[in-house]
Amino acid sequence: MQQDVSTGEKPKPLWRRIVDFPLVAMLIGIAVWFLGLMIAGAIAKLAIPPIPGLSKDTIFFLIGTPILILLYVFVIAKLGDPKRNDFHDPKALRHLLWGLVGGTVIFSAAVAIAGAIGIYHIVGIGSLNGLLAALISPALFPAVSEEMLFRGILFRWLEQFGGSWLALIVTSALFGAAHLANPNASLVAAVGIALEAGVMLGAAYMLTRSLWLPMGLHAAWNFTQGEIYDIPVSGTKVDGMVDAQLSGPPLLSGNGFGLEASVIAIAVATLFGLWLLWRAIQQGQVKRPMWVRQRSAATPAV
Known about the structure:
single chain
């Protein structure tokens, strides 16, 4: 096998070039992600006895989270060219904390506006009985699993192939569409999720080039609306620390899906996402499509 004259390295075999192509690497990553869920499901069903106080779903989430992380670090991170581990971040703790604070503040701002205009009402004291389950789902597991899939796999390789704008548009649309299967979902809810969460989380990933900031935002966003404010999380009812109700026009109350389908949260979170996107642009984090990069690299400097 001959060496590449320009780099002095041996060219990669054909199979490796195929596997490393962005869209192929993405499909393999998706398959590995689903494999992780299947392994976790099998273990939770066949190998773990019932645990008092924990539902089957909670046990699955507890098992699935570390399995997905291990598969990402040891398999998915080694796919593609260049290879990259989105969990490896020297500022991981800082980004995670900022995400947790940001997600809490942004959704609290939406709740404050909803309360001020009479859409959100606290009617009693809630309960902390479901605190552990809420920490795992909808906080921990969705934050890890969904950010790994939508940002660590889909966004990463769509961006490598077609550039940052294609990746942001496609992953935001897919993220919104994925919530159509949720209780009380609607087209408005899906579009809202695409705008408020898809843009915000995609921009957070672009800005930091790691999963920690989007995971923190995602976890805090879900936990705050459900466990603290007693608002349905993407249509799923969660018992909060207070007993609260949403009432009013569907575009303001979310029509049973929660404030995520309200123009209030959509506006607040989308503005925050656009601010993150602006920061990413200012820091030069917008990547061009693969064919543009290749054409630029092939053009000799004058």
